[in-house]
Every structure is written in structure tokens, then in C-alpha cells.
Amino acid sequence: MSSKQQKMEYFIEEWLRETGNTEIDMHQVAKYALSKGFRAPKVLSEVDLLAREFSHAAREKTRIDEETGRPYRAYHVYKQRQGDQQLSMWVDIDRAPRPKMLKSLQMRREQMIGDAVAVSNDADHWNRIHPTEAPIQIELDLTPDVAERRAAEEHEGAAE
């Protein structure tokens, strides 16, 4: 086993085999792995922990567009290389220069595509191993769903 990811996957499988459980409590898996000599990650500094909390707060912050009445995310993250490190940089959408905002939105779109590929693969696998059941079909064109959700939000806003 070479990578940390592979080692962690191994411990999940071993814990499942040893306990016979079908649901996974990752705290129990972590305790199991530590008992078998798996190294715990280094403890984050106060600054690292606080930065993580600030990132979470930034990710959750929304504002309301004055003209449309729609909510929008106030802060957006993008990745930037600095030497051999990849940093997460944040910008305020109302002040962000176009190149950084474009980078952030493209990154979020790539995440959506990754999720769509993963859910397609998962559905395909489930359908293949359950051939006697009705196949699960997942619609990946989200355009109608987005339009419907936005219309519902507008309707709710008008009703208030």
C-alpha cells in the first residue's frame, strides 16, 4: 500500500470485516486504525483551526441582490499556487476582479461535473448489480431544476 488514501480505505474495509457492521462510524474506524498503528495527522495550530472556521463562515455568508431579490454567496474561493503550495484565496463577489471570479466559478462548475460523473457511475453500478429491480435513472440536465427552484424562490419572496 502506497498512499495514505489507500491505507485509509484498507482500514475501513478491515473494520467492516472485523465488526460485521454495514454502517460505518468513522470515529470507530479512526480508533481502530490508531490501535493498529496508523499515524494520526499532525494537530493543527490555533491559526489553522481558526482559518478553517473563517473559511466555513465565508462559504456560508449570503447577501440579497438589491434588484432581483435573490440570494448570492458573498465570498468565493479560488486556488492559487505560491511556490510549492496551493492556497485557497477568498474574494468578496462585489469587489472581485473578473479573472478571480471566473476562476472561482469555473472551479465550482468542475466540482458539479465531478459530482455528476460520480452519481452516474454509482447509479450505473447499482443498476448493474440489481438487474431485477427498476433501474435508477438520474437526470443530469439541471437546467429545468434550476429554473424551477429560482421561480419558487421568487414566488416565496413575493408572498412575504
Q: Would you write up a description of this structure?
A:
- The chain folds into 2 domains: about 5-35, no CATH class; about 45-160, no CATH class.
- It is built from 5 helices and 4 strands.
- It has helices at about 5-20, 25-35, 45-60, 100-130, 145-160; strands at about 60-65, 70-75, 75-80, 85-90.
- The strands form 2 sheets. It has a two-stranded antiparallel ribbon. Strands 3-4 form a two-stranded antiparallel ribbon.
- The protein is extended.
Structural class by helix and strand composition: alpha+beta
**Gross morphology:** extended
Total helical elements: 5
For the record, give the distance between the C-alpha atoms at the N and C termini, rounded to a whole number: 58 Å
Specify Rg, calculated over alpha carbons.
Answer: 22 Å
For the secondary structure, the number of strands is 4
Main sheet: which strands, in order across?
Answer: 1-2
Question: Average pLDDT across residues?
Answer: 92
Q: Show unreliable segments.
A: none
How big a fraction of the residues is strand? Answer: 5-15%
Brief synopsis:
The protein is of the alpha+beta class and 160 residues long. 56% of the residues lie in helices and 14% in strands.
Label this structure with key terms.
single chain, 160 residues, alpha+beta, 2 domains, two-stranded antiparallel ribbon, two-stranded antiparallel sheet, 56% helix, 14% strand
